[in-house]
């Protein structure tokens, strides 16, 4: 079994006039593939960390994508969100074929020009992996759950 895992998360306050930039993610969690520490999960990287441990014990292949997290603030700059999204999706494309995708998202990310960031990345990932691949998403319990997200994810 081949599983791809990555994370992109922040909690957006749409009333904040101060945008969240790539620098904010750099100050939080900004990990490239294989850069996640072995000893402990970081903010919003627990699904990847658990998948890594299970892959080692159960013998499946885990392909680690990038993990990004910024402390809650205003909407993420459009170009910065698109850069992070495209990096993760490029890694996913290189990992194909995969049997599953595991995303750690927040569920309340806002980015300039995107009403549903999580739905956007899920839609693009689903287009890459097809309908038979299992797509799982970890969301914060008080997320904004959209119909699009429910339709695009299996778990």
Description of the structure:
- The protein has helices at 22-27, 46-58, 78-95, 117-129, 147-152; strands at 2-9, 29-31, 61-69, 100-105, 134-138.
- With 155 residues, the protein is of the alpha/beta class.
- The protein has one domain.
- Helix 4 (117-129) links the parallel strand 4 (100-105) and strand 5.
- It is globular.
- The model has no long low-confidence stretch (mean pLDDT 94).
* Total of helices: 5
Strand content: 15-25%
The total number of structural domains is 1
Element order: H for helix, E for strand: EHEHEHEHEH
User: Taking all residues together, what is the mean pLDDT?
Assistant: 94
List keywords for this structure.
single chain, 155 residues
Give a quick summary of the entry.
The protein has five helices and five strands.
Topology:
Layout: E1 2-9, H1 22-27, E2 29-31, H2 46-58, E3 61-69, H3 78-95, E4 100-105, H4 117-129, E5 134-138, H5 147-152
Parallel strand pairs: 1-3, 1-4, 4-5
Antiparallel strand pairs: 2-3
Helix pairs in contact: 3-4
């Amino acid at each position: 079994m081949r599983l791809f895992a990555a994370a992109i998360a922040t909690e957006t306050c749409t009333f904040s006039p101060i945008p969240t930039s790539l620098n904010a993610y750099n100050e939080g969690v900004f990990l490239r593939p294989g850069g996640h520490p072995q000893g402990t999960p970081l903010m919003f990287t627990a699904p990847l960390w658990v998948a890594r441990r299970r892959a080692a014990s159960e013998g499946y292949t885990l392909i680690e994508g990038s993990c990004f997290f910024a402390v809650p603030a205003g909407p993420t700059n459009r170009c910065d969100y698109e850069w992070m999204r495209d990096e993760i999706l490029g890694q996913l494309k290189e990992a194909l074929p995969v049997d599953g995708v595991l995303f750690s998202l927040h569920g309340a990310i806002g980015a300039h020009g995107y009403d549903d960031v999580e739905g956007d990345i899920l839609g693009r990932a689903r287009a890459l992996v097809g309908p038979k691949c299992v797509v799982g998403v970890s969301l914060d319990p008080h997320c904004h759950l959209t119909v699009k997200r429910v339709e695009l994810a299996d778990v």
